[in-house]
Amino acid sequence: MQFVCNAPSPIGAVLVVALPESSQVGRLIAFYCTNFTNGSLPMMFALATTTIASHTKRATASAIIFGHSTAFIIRPRFFLDKEAPQYLTAFKAMTTLHSAVRLGPGG
Questions:
Q1: CA–CA gap between residue 64 and residue 4 (Å, rounded)
Q2: Any residues with CB less than 8 A from the CB of 58 and at least 6 apart, and which?
Q3: Least packed by Cβ within 10 Å: which of 73, 81, 92, 96?
């Protein structure tokens, strides 16, 4: 289920950059796909709290999952006014952050 929620995010971020500006509907749909990853947050927290036995391991898992939240916090900082309306830096960073979080132990 987490894969279903997380797979559209990096794909959507790549498509926003790759699609031509004339394809506004396609870019809008791709942008909407970048938000699918929000559905996996409750699943990650639930799995960390219910399947991990000791307090230390549970705290470590929560710290790893915090990396996911950190990606959400720093992601808007890459939307630079001078790059409007394409925001290439932001979508490259979004793709990198989503991929790093998904490949890490918390994803």
A1: 21
A2: 48, 49, 52
A3: 81
Neighbours of 58 (CB within 10 A): 15
Q: Which domain holds residue 11?
A: 2-103
Q: Report CA 14 to chain centroid distance, whole Å.
A: 12
Model confidence pLDDT, tens digit, residues 22-33: 999 999 999 899
pTM (predicted TM-score): 0.65
Q: Are 95 and 79 in contact (CB under 8 A)?
A: no
pLDDT of residue 104: 52
Across 1-107, the runs of DSSP E, i.e. the strands, are none
Q: How many domains does the chain have?
A: 1
Cβ–Cβ under 8 Å, residues 32 and 8: no
Residue 55 has what DSSP assignment?
H
Q: CB-hemisphere CA count at 13 Å for 93? A: 15
Q: How far apart are CA 58 and CA 36, in angstroms?
A: 26
